[in-house]
Amino acid sequence: MDTYDVIVIGVGGMGSAACYHLARRGTRVLGLERFDVPHQMGSSHAVNRIIRLAYYEDPSYVSLLRRAYELWRELQSGFGEQLLHITGSVDASNADGEVFRGSLRSCELHDLPHEVLTSADLSRRFPAFRLPAGHLALFQPDGGFLLSERCIVAHVFGAMAAGAEIRARERVVEWTAMAGGVRVETERGTYEAERLVVSAGAWMQRLVPELASLAQPERQVLAWFQPTDPSLFTPARFPVFNLTVDEGRYYGFPVFGVPGFKVGRYHHREEQVDPDDFEREPNLTDETVLRDFTTRYFPGAAGPTMALRSCLFTNTPDDHFVIDVLPDAPQVVIASPCSGHGFKFCSVVGEILADLASRGATDHDVSLFRLRRFAGAGGGKG
Ligand SMILES: Cc1cc2nc3c(=O)[nH]c(=O)nc-3n(C[C@H](O)[C@H](O)[C@H](O)COP(=O)(O)OP(=O)(O)OC[C@H]3O[C@@H](n4cnc5c(N)ncnc54)[C@H](O)[C@@H]3O)c2cc1C
How buried is 124 (Cβ within 10 angstroms: 0-12 exposed, 13-18 middle, 19+ buried)? Predict the structure, then answer.
């Protein structure tokens, strides 16, 4: 039987970064992935993901983000390909809304450069935006997007160059904690290691019973629409955005990779799903949700449809991540950093997972992500 220092289950956004950091520390690491590397079945595909420092979800994410930016830049310089594109970010809602107020708070607390713009100011500066009168927008110049599938490829190349073994098309069927380690059974073989990292995205609840009611997969759909005036939607003239309006909370990107303006709605149609059995193919209702929003707030982007793609969120009850060691099996590290906002953190989460798997602790502040915060809530037992 092959033995390793650490086995990582799931070589997606987080798992690829964990393999990279572990291998570069000289750890003998095996990464096991059930699909291809990369693939379109989980949470990290569809060209790109927003990264931003103005963090309305909670200002305590900002110090992790600073490190995440640093690590993304290091990764892309080693990889020799641009992974991070800076466009600036816009976070807008009515003045009392969480998106504007929370972003402003994180900028003030962390002394981040920013500007507050009215709807009219925003349209003057970025003419593609047509926000409701009375909305306020926070512009933060460091926002942008990451090429998510290329980030996974870069982490995997780096991990392999440092000695990691990565095996795709090899689904983990089960794992067992033993004295001094773990045994992992896949469809192809059995492996042992001293430590285990489980970073299985939408499949976490299958592999970690403690997350059975805490990591809920949810169907998402993204659309790309052809702008009637593409010059308004280039990365140089169109920042990534988060926007809350009466219809919900939406996010979007400049034209990049696919010849269309990319848009999504957080929690789309609120469909909790089985990741192995849901409607992957987007339908007309999905498209209408995103087209109606685009027609109203970005009328210059509501041309013919170019692409539609489904994807999976994995939500926790409070929308914060779970990153922890298992209370009953401290050799097992679990990472469920999604709730629709995790990708930007992959680089630093990889570092945290490597810390937890190699010494059981990390210097990063991960107190917000402890499993035990759900204890007694009827969810996990941690
Ligand atoms: C539509 C959409 C838009 C998003 N937008 C943003 C954004 O703009 N910014 C942002 O920061 N975040 C965003 N997110 C969230 C972000 O993409 C996720 O947080 C992140 O991709 C999660 O990474 P992960 O490694 O947990 O999951 P994944 O990348 O899906 O990786 C999990 C891996 O585990 C593998 N796996 C599962 N079970 C097994 C098994 N039994 N054996 C072996 N392998 C297994 C899977 O195949 C998969 O490859 C978005 C998510 C979606 C779906």
Answer: exposed
Q: CB neighbours (10 Å) of residue 165?
A: 17
* pLDDT tens, position by position, 141-178: 999 999 999 999 999 999 999 999 999 999 999 999 99
Q: Measured from the CA of 35, which atom of ligand 1 is nearest?
A: 47
d(CA 329, CA 367): 19
Structure tokens at 355: 């810390």
DSSP 232: G
Q: What are the b/e assignments for 180-199, b being 16+ CB within 10 Å?
A: ebbbbebeeeebbbbbbbbb
Report the separation in Å between the CA atom of 132 and the middle of ligand 1, taken as the mean of its atom positions: 33
Distance in angstroms (rounded) separating the CA atoms of residues 153 and 332: 25
Ligand 1 centroid distance, CA of 115 (Å): 32
Summarised one tens digit per residue, pLDDT across range 52-93 is: 999 999 999 999 999 999 999 999 999 999 999 999 999 999
Tokens 């702008």, residue located: 227
Q: Is 59 in the pocket of ligand 1 (CB under 6 A)?
A: no
DSSP state of 180: T
Torsion sign across C-alpha atoms 95, 96, 99, 104: positive
Question: Which ligand 1 atom sits closest to the C-alpha of 14?
Answer: 25
Digit-coded pLDDT (tens) for 352-375:
999 999 999 999 999 999 999 998
Identity of the amino acid at 361? A
What are the residues whose beta carbons fall under 8 Å from the beta carbon of 30, sequence distance 6 or more?
A: 2, 4, 6, 7, 8, 164, 165, 166, 167, 191, 193
By residue count, the chain amounts to 382
pTM higher than 0.70? yes
Query: What tens digit of pLDDT does each residue of 244-279 get?
Result: 999 999 999 999 999 999 999 999 999 999 999 999
Question: What integer pLDDT is reported at residue 47 of this predicted model?
Answer: 98
Cα–chain center distance at 205: 17
